[in-house]
User: Fold this.
Amino acid sequence: MSDLVVFFSNILVKGFAPYLMPITIVGFVFGIAARFLVYWTVKRESWFTQQFEKRVFRFLDGEKVIDNRPLSFQVTVKRILERTYYELFEYRAILKRRKSDAITTMGDRVFLIQMGAAKIVRDTLKLIKHFKYGKSSQRPKFLEVSKTVFQGNPCFTKVFGIFPVGVLNDVVNILPGLFIVGGIFGTFLGIMQALPELRRVDVSDLEMTKVVMDNFLVAIAFSMNTSIIGIVFSVAMTVFNTFIVPDKLFLDAVDKYEGCLDILWNRCNNNKLPEQIEAFNEHKDPLDALAEEAVRNQLKKGGSRFAEDDTVRDSPIVVEEVDGEDEEIPCEMEYDEEEDDDETNDETNYDKKKAS
Assistant:
């Protein structure tokens, strides 16, 4: 039994000890990179939700309050979501008004953010189309809808659509502890490697004894460095994980999305689909037609996995009959991103020309 222990100890010392330090450094770099990629993916998901929230409140602020006027929840959500997608991705990619737009647009495509946003629009419309209004109807569980939409989105649950976000995040969370263990393990390996050298000590030869002890102390000091580096990497990784927390971003995005759907549900009074609304004209507003087409084209680029269902290919325009005349529900949607609101006056003219 002791021979077996010595055999495996020699394998560890000779085969693993030389590579422990490089493995620790590679693990630290991997942890920083993985955490950043996960955080960026979730952050862009949260960014889309924030922009949707802005447009919901802008819709409510710009709306003319008309008592007893029917307003479809399905069509209102569809209109705002599709316009949000169009203004954040298609409109920005065409105009490139900011210096960072070109880089951000490319990054959104590489990280599949644009595809993920299009899938959010599609999945939301699929889940809410069967909700019913009425005193006897149970209030929709928008929290469950939001969780289903975000957690079932492969573009946001996987980095580059390949590496699972949850697995990467869990691995990064345990790295600080692994660095401590690796540092202590490296120290013991260094001691095991240095101890056999003490057999060369000869009390009758002081010069040889001095050389052996000097080499032993150097080896011990070097082995201690692995513990120091392990502690430093552990502290650095813990601090980095404390400030870069994708979990909070995800929960915040789900809460905001749920809140927006709940607000719109309270404002609307029916959940009619576009084909159930009289005097419905899908070409009433060119911007809405462009927004719907942009989402549809993006989903087609993802192949059969993201192909759009016919049940959600409805126009986003709401037209209601008021006093015998068709009147479109006002919904002012300006191009907006982050805190920048410097709009151009020719936005509507540009979209109408493009649609024609």
